[in-house]
Every structure is written in structure tokens, then in C-alpha cells.
Specification:
The chain is an alpha/beta fold. It has helices spanning about 25-35, 50-60, 65-70, 85-95, 110-120, 150-160, 175-185, 185-200, 205-230, 230-240, 245-255, 260-275, and strands spanning about 15-20, 40-45, 60-65, 75-80, 100-105, 125-130, 140-145, 165-170. The structure holds NADP nicotinamide-adenine-dinucleotide phosphate. NADP nicotinamide-adenine-dinucleotide phosphate binds near residues 83, 106, 107 and 129.
């Protein structure tokens, strides 16, 4: 297994093209520029001129006139459009992608074999499932290698992914579950935050105070998990003393089926990812 900490690759000199400058495309571009990729080595294309203008103003990257022009100027092509548009976009660029180029797709649920079939010729492809905290450089990405991707391609992908967070390599069959855990996962934490704020507000606290308490508690808890590395069970024990307030809350969570709800939610997301892969 390959993880973030093993990445030492450099992106210097590589020309990177990003097609689709939406939420994820912009997060990527910002991360790459912050990671000292020379903005003139990044080329972007999006059909939405407003997004292009905004990112050009902020990051001073190159703007392509078309997706074909973008790929013709790139050693690495990142496809960051919605999954349902991926086939269409690949049809536009397929013959323009350079012979030795690496294509990285972040489209949820589009398999490596589908991407290969859209290209109709051997292309080095890496499929990635990133997540939304990439926006603040704290993303979690899992990736799988296509059959033509080399060890050098893997290093390049790792260097790119490390520009906006952590990464791990997984077999492609694991990506539906990755989607259910870390792809959709930020929304589960946001839901917990929302419910905590609602509960506090319902008991008389001002929303802005409740929001501050909850957001900082989320940040602190996240940092403890990452920096401390211990299992959640051990960390819970550190907060919950016998007969105390946390224990009372944990008993309520248990009584109302919190564990089962989380288990079912992750199963549902995974099932939906599999359905979407079958275009249902
Ligand atoms: N957002 C997440 O949390 C997340 C997490 C994991 C994976 N992903 C994956 O990341 C990919 C991008 O998601 P996103 O949330 O960044 O989507 P997004 O904000 O909609 O960005 C996609 C961009 O691509 C543009 N576009 C559409 N057709 C195009 C074309 N033919 N050529 C060039 N650009 C085109 C869109 O323009 P218009 O808006 O005008 O259509 C939009 O600006 C998706 O495949 C998604 O599955 C997203």
C-alpha cells in the first residue's frame, strides 16, 4: 500500500492541464500553485468563463481556448468534470492527448475500464476519489492505477494529490466503499455538527455561540485523532469518566441506535455508488 508519507515526488517542470474548474478543479489548482508548481505550467479549461476568469485572476494560470488545446499543452491531464460528462469530454480530447501523457480522473463512479474504452487506445490512467476538504488543503484521496499506468505515473499522481491533502492507494474494487467513507464522509461530520448546534440552540444557546463551540470542538477532535493516532475507543475513554456527563450522552447515542444509523448510512452510500457505476 502506498500512502502520503511515502511520497517524495517533485512536480517541477511538469505541465499540468485541468479540465473543469469547479469545486474540485479549483481546489486542485490552488493546491498545486501553493505547492510551488509554476502557474504558467498549469493550463485550465472550463466551459464556464466566469470560473476561468476568477481562477486566472487568483492563480495566474494559463487558460486554454478548448479542452483539446488544454491537453495538447499538458503532460498530465486532470479530468475534473461531473461523472455524466466524462465520456463527452474524453471524446473531445481523446486524439489530442499526448502519447506519454498521464490522465487522472476524479469523476466519482466512472471505472478505469470505462475510461479506457472512452479513449479507444492505450492511455495511462489513474482514478482518484478525493473529498471536499481538499478545498482547504486537508483532503483525503484514494487512488487506483489503470492497467497502463507506470510506477513513474503513480509517483506523479502522489505528488499531485499531496498538494491538497493525504492519499492512499487502494484496489479499484474498494473505491465504492472509499466513496461512502471519505468521499461522502465530510457531510456526515457536518450533519453531526448541525444536530449539535440545533440541540444547543433548542436548549437556549445563541446559534453563533453554539456554532463556535461545535466548529472548534470538531477541529480539535480531528487534530487529536490525526496527531495522536490512537483508536477512537481509547480517545472516547479519555473524555468519558465513569458516571459523568459524556457517559450519559454516549448511553443516549447507544439507546437511539447511533452505531446502527452510521453503519446503514455507509452501506447506503456504497450501494448508491455501485448503482451509479451501472448508470442507474
Ligand atoms: N465535490 C466533491 O465533494 C467531490 C468529491 C469527490 C469527487 N468529486 C468529483 O469531482 C468531479 C468534479 O466535481 P465538482 O464538485 O468540482 O463539480 P463542479 O463544481 O460542477 O465542476 C465541474 C466544472 O466542469 C465544467 N464543465 C462542464 N462541462 C465541461 C466541459 N465539456 N469542458 C470543460 N469543463 C466543463 C462545469 O461547468 P458548468 O458548471 O457550467 O457545467 C464546472 O465548472 C466530479 O466528477 C465529482 O464526481 C467531487
Amino acid at each position: 500500500m502506498s500512502t502520503s508519507s511515502s511520497s517524495k515526488s517533485s512536480l517541477s517542470g511538469l505541465r499540468i492541464g485541468v479540465i473543469g474548474a469547479g469545486n474540485m478543479g479549483q481546489a486542485l489548482i490552488r493546491g498545486l500553485v501553493e505547492k510551488s508548481v509554476y502557474p504558467q505550467n498549469i493550463c485550465i479549461f472550463d466551459i464556464d468563463k466566469k470560473k476561468i476568469d476568477a481562477i486566472k485572476k487568483e492563480a495566474h494560470v494559463r487558460i486554454a481556448k478548448s479542452s483539446r488545446q488544454c491537453v495538447s499543452l499538458s503532460d498530465v491531464v486532470i479530468l475534473a468534470v461531473k461523472p455524466q460528462l466524462l465520456g463527452e469530454v474524453i471524446a473531445e480530447i481523446a486524439t489530442g492527448v499526448q502519447k506519454d501523457a498521464l490522465v487522472i480522473s476524479i469523476a466519482a463512479g466512472v471505472s478505469l475500464s470505462s475510461i479506457d474504452s472512452f479513449f479507444k487506445r492505450p492511455i495511462s490512467v489513474i482514478r482518484v476519489m478525493p473529498n471536499m476538504p481538499a478545498l482547504v488543503g486537508a483532503g483525503m484521496s484514494a487512488f487506483s492505477l489503470g492497467k497502463h499506468a507506470s510506477a513513474k505515473d503513480r509517483k506523479i499522481a502522489e505528488a499531485i494529490l499531496s498538494a491538497f491533502g493525504e492519499f492512499v492507494q487502494v484496489p479499484e474494487k474498494m473505491l465504492d466503499l472509499v466513496t461512502a467513507v471519505s468521499g461522502s464522509g465530510p457531510a456526515y461530520f457536518f450533519l453531526l455538527a448541525e444536530k449539535m448546534i440545533e440541540a444547543a440552540h433548542g436548549m437556549g444557546m445563541k446559534v453563533d455561540i453554539a456554532k463556535k463551540l461545535v466548529y472548534q470542538t470538531a477541529l480539535g477532535s480531528g487534530r487529536v485523532m490525526i496527531e495522536n493516532g490512537e483508536d477512537p475507543e481509547v480517545l472516547i475513554e479519555r473524555v468519558a469518566s465513569k458516571g459523568g456527563t459524556t457517559e450519559a450522552a454516549l448511553k443516549s447515542f447507544k439507546r437511539y441506535g447511533f452505531g446502527k444509523a452510521v453503519q446503514e448510512a455507509i452501506k447506503s452510500a456504497c450501494k448508491r455508488s455501485i448503482q451509479m457505476r451501472g448508470n442507474k
